[in-house]
Amino acid sequence: MAYIGSLDQGTSSTRFMIFDGDGKVVGQHQLEHRQILPHAGWVEHDAAEIWDRTKEVIAGALKQADILGSDLAAIGITNQRETTVAWDVTTGRPLHNAIVWQDTRTAEYLSTFSPEISKAITHKSGLPIAPYFAGSKMHWLIENSAEVKSAIASGTARFGTVDSWLLWNLSGGVQGGVHCTDVTNASRTLLMNLETLQWDDELLGYFGIPRTVLPEIKSSSEIYATTDPHGPLGSAVPIAGILGDQHAAMVGQVCFERGESKTTYGTGNFALLNTGTEIVRSKNGLLSTVCYKFGDKPAMYALEGSVAVTGSAIQWLRDQLGIISNAAETEALASSVTDTAGVYFVPAFSGLFAPYWRTDARGVIVGLTRAATKAHLARAALEAICYQTRDVMDAMVADSGVPMTEMRVDGGITANSLCMQMQADIMGIDITRPLITETTALGAAYAAGLAVGFWKNTDELKKQWKQSRRWSATTSVEDRASGYAGWKKAIERTLNWA
């Protein structure tokens, strides 16, 4: 058993990666799933489709690595956070499409909460009141799905984030699947007390969620169950790590010390700052969240800034506008012009997250002239990714009081060298990318490996981190200030539209 498996279930795709003891990838397979958009602001996934994709990618990765499931010492799970699944334990079928983290259908419901209740929820959970989080999605399912109501009445309903759905299926499903989650995913529901690390009766009451449907909360690194020998791995393999995707990336980037930070570029963009064992209450629109918890060691906390649309803005250029045929074309197209010709693009397709938290905001493109081309728009889309990141990191510095001199980055867009150079230029700091850029999957593998002794401790993991590329700022302070001032004006247009 010389390998660790990592199931990385994301917003647009699912993949299984297999790592050796040096953290190197020896096999992987990835498949996309559908994005279901029933109404404006609604985003859903078919959880049954995600489970089918999971089985396929596990088989594909094992085949590529030319190993058996029994060659794995353990597997870890990392997942798109906040996305909410309800299923029936007697049939094993979802009771409704999963409601995705980007979905804003519960905004009106949340607006009915009094300031006093909102303040109480934020203090206990560390989260602002927003449809982004799972609690209001669960409430919506209870209020609007006859199937969910019926299953709750009969005692067969189970709710969870995607990690819980996958763990339940991998560990046997209707034949006795285990229903639990880890502290990082639970901390994204508005239902967990950040201090006790357990479901909070007062929070459950605000959203009308029965405790009986929820998973047991455990640490991010321990043996939760073994895989069903009749399942896709064909063997009883310990499932020993669970981390929400951004927390997994922190572990994959070995950000184990207070003050260390990373930014992950995926469908959205997420920056985390390790605050150690201290819960730091943000004054600048950031989230207080659990960073990770390894076994019975104390939980480590983090400040987080979330941007809803980064990589999905590039998907929009491809799928809705048709100005590129694949994401890789964006760099060449954007590089064909030297600037955006004054164009700014704020992709607030599902509102604005940190540090604004305006669910009613909508996307805008400003500064258009007849001279503007698709190349300028492509470049503005890349700049939008970088400006949104600066918004978050400026808030992080303000909250922590720690000046930032470099930022570790990972995720798909880090392959775009132009975008990373823009990021360095817009922020005025060094940007550094690790040798293994898909650190989300690696972090889940690390958590699982630590639980079964595959790796001894975090010091061993730190030695594996290696830099592959560094970008340094080339712009002047004046140019950075001027460009950022234009971005802030574009943000004003977005908010005024609302």
Overall description:
This is glycerol kinase. Its EC number is 2.7.1.30. It catalyses: glycerol + ATP = sn-glycerol 3-phosphate + ADP + H(+). InterPro entries: ATPase_NBD, Carb_kinase_FGGY, Carb_kinase_FGGY_CS, FGGY_C, FGGY_N, Glycerol_kin. Helix content is about 35%, strand content about 25%. It has about 500 residues and is an alpha+beta fold. The protein has a domain at about 1-245: ATPase, nucleotide binding domain (Nucleotidyltransferase, domain 5). The strands form 7 sheets. A 7-stranded mixed sheet has the order 17-18-16-15-21-22-23. A 6-stranded mixed sheet has the order 3-2-1-5-14-13, with helices on both faces. Strands 4-7 form a two-stranded antiparallel sheet. Strand 10 (about 190-195) and strand 11 form a beta hairpin. Helix 10 (about 310-320) packs antiparallel against helix 12 (about 375-400), helix 11 (about 330-335) packs across helix 12 (about 375-400) and helix 12 packs across helix 13 (about 415-425). It starts with a strand and ends with a helix.
Task: Indicate the topology.
Layout: E1 3-9, E2 13-19, E3 25-32, E4 44-45, H1 47-65, E5 72-79, E6 84-88, E7 98-99, H2 107-110, H3 115-125, H4 134-144, H5 146-154, E8 157-161, H6 162-170, E9 180-182, H7 183-186, E10 192-193, E11 198-199, H8 201-207, E12 216-218, E13 221-226, E14 238-244, H9 245-252, E15 261-265, E16 269-276, E17 287-292, E18 300-307, H10 311-321, H11 329-335, E19 344-346, E20 364-366, H12 374-400, E21 406-411, H13 417-427, E22 430-434, H14 439-452, H15 458-462, E23 467-471, H16 477-497
Parallel strand pairs: 1-5, 5-14, 9-12, 15-21, 21-22
Antiparallel strand pairs: 1-2, 2-3, 4-7, 6-8, 10-11, 13-14, 15-16, 16-18, 17-18, 19-20, 22-23
Helix pairs in contact: 4-5, 9-14, 10-12, 11-12, 12-13
